[in-house]
């Protein structure tokens, strides 16, 4: 085979990157660009979808250059993306009608509450596996249809198209207004509140609840199959097969080779996302977790998962850096937090966009509690790292209860895993070993794996499991008394965030 590599586009909340991998899953080259975070009102978060497309084209070109290859060297390309972020554009011009509404955006919180109060919440939860929440795409799409001029009329006429970021990029990569393919995969569709978990198709009753015209929705496909090919005039500069599509957290599960039921990974990024493979079984949570599609490879049955989504973890460190200017770069958080032996009684609950799993409290807002004159910014920095880990424990505890299993090791990935103090704190708070893989960029790797499997670049999941290797493991050091005292005070701090927004 002359094509020795697979590429992956990772379109995230704060940046876009393109990475190239060889058959062993080793990175060959990459390029990455940040994009603007648009904050027009308190609780509103937007992105310029056109800027994201421009950045995607730029990182593809830069990544190919960094790897020293051309389109002809790529067997296939996969895409992974920030999942619930919602784009609506005109198929005739390729222009978005308005800024993309980001998954963190809270403008539809009251609409979601009205669905719960009106009894539709039970229908949504039963069919889609999700509670009505501002987090998901369906409410954001409803808002655009009802608040942006001409969108509803254009949607009824077949001109306005909806997609999460994967759909927007695939459409543009395959030609845009000139024959672009309008598709999404089962993992991204499962985050809209519009897809039925069992038949993996858009559900008429859910579309009626959200008042969404079906003709504006993309076709739902598996996560691993050929979706389309790029034109020579596109950013790849040649024809490339697009064959992998996974929402970012599902891609991380694949990249971590968590193919067996009971395997759990935690991705540390802007937020934290814990995903537990439940096999071909749909497990309904009684503790505020999400039931979602983990992945589907080709014609094989879908694999399902339980997920706990945490809105603010790494972005809390960014907040200390950018808004409070506590340090100059995020990596300094470890150095500063390491100058104190503990949090000095300080707890930081970064509920900037409310609390996600397992609480689902949009009325919550961030707090820093336990302050005395003894405390310094070092205690606040350490409390920010502990908040990442305590929020993860909130989810792990209920996830294991829902699934009826015990956890022996937590596989971790994402940028914050480079912070070794944070990973040690995570092992201490959970009382389980924490394992980081050699390739920490598992979202990109998972998208590459899905694409490679579709074209036969990799023979199957056994080969992908053989690629996985551990770079470091952290073992718990805290006593049971330390652990339980800390968690008890954390829960007290969480209570202080509630009922703030009336």
Count of beta strands: 23
Shape verdict: globular
Strand order of the largest sheet: 17-18-16-15-21-22-23
Low-pLDDT parts are none
Structural class of the secondary structure composition?
A: alpha+beta
Termini separation: 62 Å
Q: Rg, please?
A: 22 Å
Mean pLDDT: 95
Strand content: 15-25%
The biggest beta sheet reads: 7 strands, mixed
Task: Describe the fold and architecture.
The chain has 502 residues and is an alpha+beta fold. Helix content is 34%, strand content 23%. The protein has 16 helices and 23 strands. The chain has helices at 49-67, 109-117, 120-128, 137-147, 151-156, 165-173, 186-189, 204-210, 248-255, 314-322, 332-337, 377-403, 420-430, 442-454, 461-467, 480-497, and strands spanning 5-11, 15-21, 27-34, 46-47, 74-81, 86-90, 100-101, 160-164, 183-185, 195-196, 201-202, 219-221, 224-229, 241-247, 264-268, 272-279, 290-295, 303-310, 347-349, 367-369, 409-413, 433-437, 470-474. Strands 17-18-16-15-21-22-23 form a 7-stranded mixed β-sheet. A hairpin with a 7-residue loop joins strand 17 (290-295) and strand 18. Helix 12 packs across helix 13. It starts with a strand and ends in a 5-residue tail after the last helix.
In short:
The protein has 502 residues and is α+β, with helices and mostly antiparallel strands.
Tags for this entry?
globular, 23 strands, alpha+beta, 34% helix, 23% strand, six-stranded mixed beta sheet, single chain, 502 residues, seven-stranded mixed beta sheet
Please render the helix and strand layout as text.
Elements: E1 5-11, E2 15-21, E3 27-34, E4 46-47, H1 49-67, E5 74-81, E6 86-90, E7 100-101, H2 109-117, H3 120-128, H4 137-147, H5 151-156, E8 160-164, H6 165-173, E9 183-185, H7 186-189, E10 195-196, E11 201-202, H8 204-210, E12 219-221, E13 224-229, E14 241-247, H9 248-255, E15 264-268, E16 272-279, E17 290-295, E18 303-310, H10 314-322, H11 332-337, E19 347-349, E20 367-369, H12 377-403, E21 409-413, H13 420-430, E22 433-437, H14 442-454, H15 461-467, E23 470-474, H16 480-497
Parallel strand pairs: 1-5, 5-14, 9-12, 15-21, 21-22
Antiparallel strand pairs: 1-2, 2-3, 4-7, 6-8, 10-11, 13-14, 15-16, 16-18, 17-18, 19-20, 22-23
Helix pairs in contact: 9-14, 10-12, 12-13
């Amino acid at each position: 085979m002359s094509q020795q590599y697979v590429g992956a586009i990772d379109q995230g909340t704060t940046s876009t990157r393109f990475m190239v991998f060889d058959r062993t899953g080793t990175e060959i080259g990459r390029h990455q660009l940040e994009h603007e975070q648009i904050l027009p009102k308190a609780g509103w978060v937007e992105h310029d979808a056109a800027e994201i497309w421009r950045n995607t084209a730029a990182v593809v070109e830069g990544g190919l250059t960094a790897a020293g290859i051309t389109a002809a060297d790529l067997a296939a390309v996969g895409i992974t993306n920030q999942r619930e972020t919602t784009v609506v554009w005109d198929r005739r011009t390729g222009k978005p009608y308005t800024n993309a509404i980001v998954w963190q955006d809270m403008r539809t919180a009251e609409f979601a509450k009205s669905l719960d109060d009106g009894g539709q919440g039970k229908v949504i939860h039963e069919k889609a596996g999700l509670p009505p929440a501002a987090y998901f795409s369906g409410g954001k799409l409803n808002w655009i249809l009802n608040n942006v001029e001409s969108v509803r009329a254009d949607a009824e006429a077949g001109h306005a198209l909806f997609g999460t970021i994967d759909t927007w990029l695939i459409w543009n990569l395959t030609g845009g207004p000139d024959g672009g393919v309008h598709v999404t995969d089962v993992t991204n569709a499962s985050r809209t509140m519009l897809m039925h978990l069992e038949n993996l198709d858009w559900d008429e009753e859910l579309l009626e609840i959200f008042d969404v015209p079906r003709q504006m929705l993309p076709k739902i496909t598996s996560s691993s199959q050929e979706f389309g090919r790029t034109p020579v005039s596109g950013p790849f500069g040649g024809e490339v097969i697009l064959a992998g599509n996974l929402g970012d957290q599902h891609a991380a599960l694949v990249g971590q080779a968590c193919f067996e039921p009971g395997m759990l990974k935690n991705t540390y990024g802007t937020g934290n996302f814990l995903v537990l493979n439940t096999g071909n079984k749909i497990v309904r949570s009684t503790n505020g977790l999400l039931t979602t599609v983990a992945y589907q490879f080709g014609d094989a049955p879908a694999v399902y998962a339980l997920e706990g989504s945490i809105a603010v973890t790494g972005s809390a460190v960014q907040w200390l850096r950018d808004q409070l200017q506590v340090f100059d770069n995020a990596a300094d958080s470890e150095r500063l937090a390491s100058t104190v032996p503990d949090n000095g009684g300080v707890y930081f609950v970064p509920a900037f966009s409310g609390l996600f799993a397992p609480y689902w409290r949009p009325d919550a807002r961030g707090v820093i509690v336990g302050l005395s004159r003894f405390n310094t910014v070092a205690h606040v920095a350490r409390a920010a790292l502990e908040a990442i880990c305590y929020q993860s424990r909130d989810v792990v505890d209920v996830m294991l209860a829902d699934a009826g299993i015990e956890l022996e090791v937590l596989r971790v990935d994402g940028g914050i895993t480079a912070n070794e103090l944070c990973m040690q704190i995570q092992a201490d708070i959970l009382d389980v070993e924490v394992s980081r893989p050699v390739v920490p960029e598992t979202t990109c790797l998972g998208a590459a794996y899905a694409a490679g499997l579709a074209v036969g670049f990799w023979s199957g999941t056994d080969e992908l499991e053989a690629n996985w290797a551990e770079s470091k493991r952290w073992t718990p050091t805290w006593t049971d008394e330390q652990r339980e005292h800390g968690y008890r005070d954390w829960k007290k701090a969480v209570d202080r965030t509630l009922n703030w927004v009336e």
